[in-house]
Every structure is written in C-alpha cells, then in structure tokens.
Design brief:
Elements (H helix, E strand, L loop, with lengths): L1 H33 L7 H10 L4 H36 L11 H17 L7 H25 L3 H24 L3 H11 L8 H20 L1 H8 L2 H6 L4 H23 L5 H13 L4 H25 L8 H20 L4
Helix pairs in contact: 1-3, 1-13, 3-8, 3-11, 3-12, 3-13, 4-5, 4-6, 4-7, 4-11, 5-6, 5-11, 8-11, 12-13, 12-14, 13-14
C-alpha cells in the first residue's frame, strides 16, 4: 500500500514538474519571439505563425530573425544540458560539465583555427566543417581529461585539471587571434562571446539533425545509464559492456557540446546547473524520467538567459555566456554546499 502511494506521489510530481516546464517553455518562447525593438503581441504572433497574417515587417522579423534564434536556443540549450548530464554520469561528479572540464574550450580552439585559416581564403565556413572541427577539439580535450582522471582520484584535482586545460586552450586561441587578419578577428570576437544571434534556418536544420539524433540516442540508453549510475559492477552484471558504453557516453557528450560551440560559441554553466535543478525538482535520478525534462530544462534556461541578454540593456546585447554564468554559478556553489562535494 505504501509503495503504491509513493509511486502515485512520484507520478504526480513528475506530471506537475513537466506541466510547469511546458508552460514556462511556451511563455518564454512567445516572449523571445515578441519582445524586441519592434514588439509583437501574442495574437499577432499566432496569426503570423499559423495563418500567415500580419504586416510584412513583423513577418520578416519573426520568420527571419527571432524564430530561428529561438529555435537555436531551444536546440542548443537542450544539447548543453544533456551533455552535462552525460558527463556527470560518466565521472560520477555533480559539478562535471563541458565548460568546467575544458571541453568547450578545446572545441573553441579548433573552431578558431578553422575560422582563421578558412576566412583568409573564403568568405564563410560550412556548418559541417564547423561541427567537425569543434568535435575534434572536444575529443582532444576530453582525452586529456580522461588521462588526468586515471592519474588522479580526487574530485577537486579532476576539476582543476579541466579548468587548466580550458585556460591553455583559451591562451592558444588568443595567440591565434593575435596573428589573424582584421576580418577574422571581428568574426572570432563576435563568435567567442557566445550568442544565438545570426542563426539562420539552414543552421537550425543542421543543428536539429545533430542534436535530435544524439538526444534520441541518449534517451534510448536510459536503461544502461540507470544501471551505470548504480556502479560499474552492477551495470556489468546487468549485461552492459562497460568499455563500449563509456566510449558512447564520451562520443555523445562531445557531439552535443561541439554542436553548441560550433554554432553559438562557448556557453558556460548550463551543463552543470540544469541537470542538478531537474534532479532536485523531480527527486529522482532515473534517466528515463530525467533525460526529457533535462532537455526541456536546458531549452528553458537558454531561452530565459537569451531574452535577458538582449533586453536588459537594449540596444546593447550582452554575451549569453555572461548571463548563464550569473545564473548558473550560484547553482554550482549551492551544489557544493548542499552535497558537500569532497575536495
């Protein structure tokens, strides 16, 4: 009887959290589409999106600027959140994330190299080339982190190693920028600040294919991830090939974080804060329940931060990474205080 009541309470909690997230998602999506230098009301937005109504200026702003930007925020925010969830599962560390471990910085380095080399010869760089370069950099940084994880056992040393890798990659990136031509420097500066602005429908299509495919793979791996969370020995007894599974976790987390870095630049703290908040709201770590809400939570987090970045000091736009850091850093501090992470 008690087990049935507990199960019912868990289901109710999950439904309430999911419903609250859905309402918040819709509200933030409408605000991101409607708020700006030209304000568009909710009725007009719905008319433009579903009935083709509205003025030509409003239609152009929504379809060509704000809607693809919002779609990019949803996809890349969800990708960052899932990447952080996978890394926290892999390292069994609540403050592991693509930015803290230097993975985003490694992706930033290789994308910067590609942009400097390519923009000196061509006017633009293809989406596939950007993602490939970011993935190579992410895998390179992840390789160093894995080597350090073997050499050191303490949680603090692993995090410090990731931070050092991030500093090294950022320093090398600065050297590259110092020898780049003026046009490349402008492009690199705008991209390295982190932003969803400038996203086109072509970019959204590419990131949708990559992010949704990787996210679906993560969801399908919910059962082995749940077994892995209970320990490698337990997972192995449940028939999980630990070596192959760990490789898949690394590849999926790297693909997700690389896609974000390629299109929006480095964005901090989303991968740490959102998975923790989702688990706190749901009161469970079951991947089958956490993964979908984690993706939705990342989308909400980035939509809210992007809205703040472009409206707080309009017409000046803040870096999205600055806003996510202001919101996410206190969450990380809270994790360390509440969980008492051993350092």
């Amino acid at each position: 009887m008690e087990m049935r009541e507990e199960t019912a309470r868990r289901r109710l909690r999950y439904c309430v959290v999911l419903a609250a997230f859905a309402v918040l998602f819709v509200a933030l999506a409408l605000l991101n589409i409607g708020v700006g230098s030209v304000s568009v009301g909710v009725r007009e937005i719905l008319g433009i999106l579903f009935r083709g109504e509205g003025g030509e200026t409003a239609r152009g702003i929504i379809w060509k600027v704000r809607l693809p930007r919002a779609a990019a925020g949803v996809l890349l925010g969800g990708a960052l959140s899932l990447s952080g969830f996978l890394l926290q599962t892999f390292f069994n560390n609540p403050i592991a994330g693509p930015y803290v471990l230097g993975i985003s910085s490694g992706a930033k380095l290789t994308v910067a190299i590609l942009m400097v080399l390519a923009l000196s010869r061509y006017r633009s760089v293809g989406s596939a080339a950007m993602i490939a370069a970011a993935f190579a950099g992410a895998m390179l940084s992840m390789g160093f982190v894995l080597l350090m994880a073997r050499a050191v056992r303490r949680s603090s040393m692993l995090i410090v190693s990731g931070v050092m890798i991030g500093y090294i990659c950022s320093a090398v990136t600065d050297f590259i920028v110092a020898f780049a031509d003026d046009a490349s420097i402008v492009n690199l500066h705008n991209w390295s600040r982190g932003s969803f602005s400038g996203a086109s429908w072509e970019d959204v299509r590419v990131m949708a294919v990559v992010v949704l495919a990787a996210s679906t793979a993560v969801f399908l791996l919910s059962k082995p991830i749940g077994a892995y969370q209970l320990g490698e020995s337990y997972a192995q007894n449940m028939g999980v090939n630990i070596r192959a599974f760990r490789v898949v976790l690394v590849l999926l987390s790297s693909v997700l974080s690389a896609c974000v870095t390629a299109f929006a630049g480095p964005i901090s703290f989303v991968g740490i804060a959102v998975p923790h908040l989702v688990r706190s709201f749901l009161k469970t770590s079951r991947p089958l329940l956490v993964v979908p809400v984690c993706f939705l939570g990342g989308a909400i987090f980035c939509l809210g931060c992007d809205l703040a970045a472009r409206t707080l000091f309009a017409p000046m736009e803040l870096s999205i990474s600055s806003v996510t850091a202001v919101v996410g850093a206190p969450v990380v501090i809270g994790i360390m205080l509440r969980k008492k992470v051993k350092v």
